Amino acid sequence: MKRPLAMIWAEGFLDRVAAERLAKELGLRIEGAVKDAGGIDRFWELLDKYNKAAEQCGLVFALADHDGVDCAGPKLAAKLRSRHRDLILRLSVAELESWLMADHESLGEYLRVSPSKFPEEPDKVKDPKRTLVDLAAKSSKPAIRAGMAPKAGHSTNRGPEYTLIMEQFVRQYWMPFRAAERSPSLKRAIVALRAASA
Amino acid sequence: MRRIPRQASEPMRFTSLKLKSWKNFKEVDIPLAERVFIIGPNASGKSNFLEVFRFLHDLTTEGGGLAKAVSLREGMSKLRSLHATVNSAVEITVGMKEPSGATWKYQLVFDTPSTTSTDVLIKVETVERDGNTLLTRPSRDDEADPDRLRQTAIEQVAANKDFRQVAELFRSIRFMNLVPQLIREGQSSPQQFPGQDPLGRDLLEQIRQCKRGLRSSRLKAIERVLRSVVPNFEELRLETDSRGRPHLAVGFKHWRTNAVRQRESQFSDGTLRLIAMLWALQEDAGPLLLEEPEWSLHTGILERLAAFIARMQREGSGRQVFITTHSERVLADAGIAPEELLLILPARRGGSEIQPAARYPVVEKAMRSGLTAAEAAQPLTRVETMRLFGEPA
Ligand SMILES: Nc1ncnc2c1ncn2[C@@H]1O[C@H](COP(=O)(O)OP(=O)(O)O)[C@@H](O)[C@H]1O
Ligand SMILES: [Mg+2]
Fold first, then answer.
1. Beta-carbon separation of A161 and B310 below 8 A
2. Could you tell me which of B323, B328, B333, B336 has the C-alpha nearest to residue B382?
3. Tell me, what DSSP letter sits at residue B19?
4. What confidence tens digit (pLDDT) does each residue in B110-122 have?
């Protein structure tokens, strides 16, 4: 019998959706709350609580972007030192988008962009979200271009339907195992989840 | 998927707003996007802001007009700002754009002739198209017969011939503040026209009256949204009961039986409100005013609301949408641009002022780098922050 996940604690909306997808792919049942922090600050702020909860209720999968964590090195080290073994804390290298872009085939087809344009080593891309948005802006499908890329004159780094479009991708098309072949950090996350739930 | 081509149906919309002495706003001068979020704490003036557009609607609607629009708001003393110079006139100026690119400007200044009078008289009324003046009042006729200044040209069919589009835009403004209980009872209030009942009581009737092909493509779009947020949701249909009354029916995939069906009487408040809103978003109509849609929508909808609105605008008629909200969930979508966000903050000399978030360089840069409106802009409107600046100098 695999151990189920008690809870998922994610940095943002899309991280949460991806964490759920990973659990599903690994055949892990989720028994309790699936929640996101709506931002990195709150994620770290409440991580201790989830750490304590893990001690009581079992596996907690916590997922955040690695972005900016380097400068928070000491803070992170302190958190990790006191980490309970049932808190599985994973950081996608740079951003979650590297994990998603690592599945060239599904994402290329979904966004209608030639897979050959995707980065071979997504974990090494400095600004994965920007890379993804720039790729989507070249889509042959107008709905993808309009939804993923910022409107002319708008000071955002993504389009107005980014959330919905990427959510659907993660839920229905993303193949984490295939993506893990190109993203070592995703592979490590899968290995850690497998080991903890064994 | 069938899509209605965008260019053909993209309606006329508002591009700017200027106000003087309107409720708790002494002065406003802002651009307006296709999708506008208005954020501010309680009693900061979010409803007062939407009220401007409702006023324009009341000005031009059947049985409306200037006198009526003012009296519905309990007279000039309630309309003009307590923070402006004593008894200053109220001014509303809107900029508009047609799909063809033609631009319009409508300006209205009105006041009472004396502090004790309840008469409302026009001080200025002008209309411009592409910078050319089509109307200037007071005209010579007005000077000869000052009683004419009780009625705006825009409210009179005989006088608004050259700028009928503007009158029609105003009339097509719709305010939405749904009360689910009332949709269920399906009772429509007698004075309202279809699509004008702010309480959404006539939703079912409106859906029924819609042409078949259009109706099913709109219900399909709503179905796609519901599928993405409601577990096991299958289909949404319009049915008629034995007495000929319309009903919404939904089907769920159930783990035991094959399908479970429900009628609107069993829907949750949130579901009904969502359906009514998604329907309205697709209507080929004028600007839609949504007052705090978070009140009975599920969290699952709130975090996707901004994107759903953008999607419905793109797939549907492209009607302009104004949303007042304090929901952090709604504002946590980084796809919202600072150009679409209006912040209400206390003004130096009392009352409130309203500015696009893009006018605050720090907010604009933070949002450009990927911070959300909830992170970069909303904290500025928090009450404790406001106190620091809020006291009159
Ligand atoms: N004519 C006026 N002059 C100044 N302030 C006004 C006027 N009319 C209403 N207000 C103020 O506007 C505020 C209410 O604004 P409202 O739009 O209802 O707020 P919100 O919708 O943001 O909660 C109240 O503080 C009220 O005193
Ligand atoms: Mg209000």
1. yes
2. B328
3. E
4. 999 887 888 999 9
Fill in the amino acid letter for A29.
R
C-alpha–C-alpha distance, residues B87 and B72, integer Å: 19
The ligand minimizing its distance to the Cα of B82 is: 1
Would the pLDDT of A4 be above 70? yes
Residue B80 CA, closest ligand 1 atom number: 1
The residue whose CA is least distant from atom 25 of ligand 1 is B43
Tokens of B386: 């406001």
Report cis status (omega within 30 of 0) of the bond before B246. Answer: no
Quick check: CB of B383 below 6 Å from ligand 1? no
* Residue B162, pLDDT above cutoff 50: yes
Q: Which residues lie at CB < 5 A from ion ligand 2?
A: B 47
Q: B356: CA distance to ligand 1 center in Å?
A: 19
Q: Tokens 């819609």 appear where?
A: B210
Selected for mutation to probe chain B from A11, A17, A164 (highest B CB count within 10 Å) is A164
Residues of B in contact with A136 (CB under 8 A): none
Residues B242 and B347: their CA atoms lie apart, in Å, by: 58
- Could you give the domains of chain B? 8-173+334-386 (3.40.50)
Contact B16, B84 (CB under 8 A): no
Prediction pTM value: 0.90
Residue B21 region by backbone torsions, left for phi larger than 0, else alpha for psi between -120 and 50, else beta: left
CB of residue B271 inside a 6 A radius of ligand 1: no
User: B45: closest CA among B279, B346, B370, B313?
Assistant: B346
Domains parsed from chain A with CATH numbers = 5-93+183-197 (3.40.50), 98-172 (no CATH)
Q: Is B39 exposed, middle or buried (0-12, 13-18, 19+ CB in 10 A)?
A: buried
**Cα dihedral value B145, B149, B154, B157, nearest 10:** -40
CB A22 within 8 A of CB A190: yes
Using the beta-carbon criterion (under 8 Å), do B310 and A155 form an inter-chain contact? Answer: no
CA distances from B70 to B29, B73, B90, B105 (A): 22, 5, 11, 21
Count CB neighbours of B162 within 10 A: 12
pLDDT over 60 at B211, yes or no: yes
CA neighbor of B125 nearest in space, from B67, B196, B66, B84: B66
